């Protein structure tokens, strides 16, 4: 095992129960070749992956392939909605597709249009989860999501609290691509994973396949191998985490 995973292994070895991890890969519809590379890594380790799909970017070929994967092995893939077009509508400040620059009515129109596209492609295999682009949305968004039948919102841990209107919230803890582009990437990844596992909460790892190189995928494969071999490690789909763990 690589030294950078030692802190995580140490936490898992001392854990009283199982530590649950989930992997949320954003921007489905962009960079399909890189998505296939990422799907291959998860497939080789029989690890489950949640894919947040941009409805307006989803091509027919990818939709058919994902549908086939969902039907063949529903325990290994989850598909849910990631915005609508993934465009920034703010004129200033931080990027946001569903933010204060747009009215509730306009947000609802786009959320519904995106949901319609994905329902047409995936039917009942679609998870009622919403990941807002850039992990940001506002109270109006949540109200619309509740009306449209969504059951879960996923943003960053530590995002400003929103009235959830009956939805549960399952945040991500680690931005893999951000950490891996910084100084001492593996050491920082190992430390962040160990901290998340030690929290006792489900630990969410956010991925962005479209910008992940082969070199970025290598440590991910090492992590999945470790989680699959240690009895205290468990990888789950987001829908399973919601069913088995207490989420907000
Ligand atoms: Zn995104």
Fold and architecture overview:
The structure is a single chain. Helices cover 42% and strands 16% of the residues. The chain has 248 residues and is α/β, with parallel strands linked by helices. α2 runs parallel beside α8. The chain has helices at residues 6-13, 32-44, 60-72, 104-122, 139-147, 176-180, 185-198, 214-229, 238-244; strands at 19-28, 49-53, 77-81, 126-130, 152-153, 168-169, 174-175, 203-207, 233-235. Strands 1, 2, 3, 4, 5, 6, 7, 8 and 9 form a nine-stranded parallel sheet that branches. The protein binds zinc ion (ZN). Zinc ion (ZN) binds at residues 26-27, 82, 86, 133.
Would you kindly provide a brief summary of this structure?
The chain has helices spanning 6-13, 32-44, 60-72, 104-122, 139-147, 176-180, 185-198, 214-229, 238-244; strands spanning 19-28, 49-53, 77-81, 126-130, 152-153, 168-169, 174-175, 203-207, 233-235. It is an alpha/beta fold and 248 residues long. α1 runs parallel beside α7 (185-198), α2 runs parallel beside α8 (214-229) and α4 packs across α5.
Task: Provide keyphrases for this structure.
248 residues, nine-stranded parallel beta sheet, 9 strands, binds zinc ion
């Amino acid at each position: 095992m690589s030294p950078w995973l030692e802190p995580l292994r140490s936490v898992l070895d001392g854990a009283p129960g199982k530590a649950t991890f989930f992997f949320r890969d954003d921007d489905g519809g962009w960079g399909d070749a890189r998505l296939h590379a990422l799907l291959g890594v998860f497939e080789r380790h029989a690890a489950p992956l949640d894919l947040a799909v941009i409805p307006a970017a989803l091509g027919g070929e990818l939709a058919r392939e994902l549908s086939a994967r969902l039907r063949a092995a529903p325990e290994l893939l989850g598909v849910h909605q990631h915005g609508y077009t993934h465009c920034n509508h703010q004129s200033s400040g931080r990027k946001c597709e569903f933010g204060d620059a747009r009215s509730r009515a306009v947000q609802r129109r786009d959320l519904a249009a995106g949901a319609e596209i994905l329902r047409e492609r995936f039917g009942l295999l679609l998870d009622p989860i919403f990941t807002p682009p850039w992990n940001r949305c506002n109270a109006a968004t949540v109200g619309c999501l509740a009306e449209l039948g969504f059951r879960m919102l996923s943003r960053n841990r530590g995002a400003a609290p929103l009235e959830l209107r009956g939805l549960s919230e399952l945040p991500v803890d680690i931005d893999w691509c951000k950490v891996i582009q910084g100084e001492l990437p593996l050491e920082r990844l190992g430390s962040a994973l160990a901290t998340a596992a030690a929290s006792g909460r489900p630990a969410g790892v956010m991925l962005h396949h479209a910008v992940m190189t082969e070199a970025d995928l290598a440590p991910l494969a090492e992590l999945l191998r470790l989680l699959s071999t240690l009895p205290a490690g468990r990888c789950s789909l987001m829908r399973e985490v919601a069913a088995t763990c207490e989420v907000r």
